[in-house]
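We emphasize that the prediction below concerns an isolated chain of 301 residues; any contacts that depend on oligomerization or on bound cofactors are therefore not represented. The input was used exactly as deposited, without trimming of termini.
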Amino acid sequence: MILMSKYLVFDIGGTNIKYGIINRSGQLIEKHRFKTPTESLAAFLAPIQQLIDQYQGQYDGLAFSIPGKVRHPDEIIYGGGSLPFLDRQRLADHLSVPTGVPVMVENDGKAAALAELWLGNLKDCQNGVALVLGTGVGGGLVLNGQLFSGSHFQAGELSFMLSDTDETMTGMLGLRGSAVAMIEQIATELKLVDHHDGLKVFEAINAGEPTAVKIFTAYCHTIALTIQNMQSVIDVERYVIGGGISAQPIVASTIRSEYLKLYHGLPIIETTLTAPAIMTGKFSNDANLYGALYHLLQSLE
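Result of the prediction step, given as a token string:
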């Protein structure tokens, strides 16, 4: 039966690769992770191929969420985000997969939106946005109840938004709005041994440590400003916040608070525009796994 079908799904991130087995009804049966090999395409592909071989016979399809633009239906990756060796690559050309097993790829921001549209907090929403806060800033737009990819499959590539005060790489939202960079900055200021220890960083934030709170609030203000600028263009009902840090309730609540400061701070905005809802996504750090699978399932219909 199709409902019993299982799929091997990968969420490719700049820091970690998460993978798991999910069935057709959206049940996550198992989940694991490992550090993303960043030295070369060959080094990157090796552990993925090993897992494809290891799980052979246990899946009916392979689905990937990746950084960078993905052109459909040929599934060619452009840019690759923080993994530039993926530029102009088609994963299916590099992987040995059992005959008849489909391989589908989707952009990470769009995968997050698909997850929330399928089974999450955009399910009943005609117009909404999924924001993924990680190494960069991913976005997925749901317009009129469907994922909106744009004319060139690049709608929602929020990392490429520029600041008018800095039109260089450092002015890109992918760097200014990087959750990884924010955590590293706070960890450095607090002199933590591990500069990637997000749990200890959020312990400090939740405890009200002044330096941590100041950096974190400035970060949330950047995301709130992005939401305000997007809202003036696309006018959606709801923004759902995803990525690993979204598991911390203080993330969505502070972004919402910073947004409302902007909204109420300029009377012309408050009297003209309707404020959207801002909330945590249902799937937190697992959204890209679910969304990659939903993209595959849609392609099979």
